[in-house]
Design a protein that fits this description.
Elements (H helix, E strand, L loop, with lengths): L27 H13 L14 E2 L4 E2 L4 H15 L6 H17 L9 H18 L7 H4 L4 H8 L8 H11 L8 H5 L1
Antiparallel strand pairs: 1-2
Helix pairs in contact: 2-3, 3-4, 4-6
Length: 187
């Protein structure tokens, strides 16, 4: 980053052997606070998995989640969970991304609002590039820029989610006897 002349607060100090912490790093207390929040959330039956089984507050980490659980986390829960944790500018960038995903997940989307939504997304991307390290901005983050265009062509996102197919494959998987060749057993 020194060669690029960006983020001087993160430069390595020659006197210190330890790297400086970034503004996006959570302290132990903040991690505990976030994990405790996710562990305490109660959701209606069928909305998502039980969040208590997805979070390990003692180890302060999230366990294996399915795609639908990740979607629920980023569209509804994360914005509430980080509201008092990170610095304000970083928090607003993450919350804006969560609100964007929540907006395109609605069942009814005003076609005239898509232009503003796309403009806001590019502003969100600039904020994320400003506060997160360059390694964070990869192709998966770039792919979000195409979501508004896909919504124009295909309609609301909920119509082309893969969650129903994943659930159906889970049902079919229960019928398999040979785990090496599950497709043959299902047929």
């Amino acid at each position: 980053m020194e060669d690029l002349d960006i983020r001087p607060e993160l430069y390595l100090d020659s006197n210190s052997a330890q790297l400086p912490t970034s503004c996006i790093n959570l302290s132990k207390e903040e991690k505990k606070q976030l994990c405790d929040f996710f562990h305490s959330v109660k959701v209606p039956s069928g909305y998502s998995s039980n969040t208590k089984s997805l979070i390990s507050p003692n180890e302060q980490k999230m366990l294996h989640m399915k795609a639908h659980d990740c979607d629920i986390m980023i569209t509804t829960m994360l914005a509430v969970g980080i509201r008092n944790i990170l610095p304000e500018k970083v928090r607003l960038a993450i919350m804006s991304l969560c609100f964007f995903f929540n907006t395109i997940s609605h069942k009814v989307i005003d076609e005239r609002a898509l232009d503003d939504l796309e403009k806001n997304l590019f502003e969100i991307m600039c904020l994320l590039e400003a506060y997160f390290p360059p390694s964070f901005v990869d192709i998966s983050l770039h792919l979000t820029t195409h979501l508004v265009k896909e919504t124009r062509y295909l309609g609301p996102v909920f119509l082309h989610h893969m969650y129903p197919y994943e659930r159906f494959m889970s049902v079919l998987n229960k019928y398999t006897k040979n785990q090496a060749l599950p497709e043959g057993c299902m047929v």
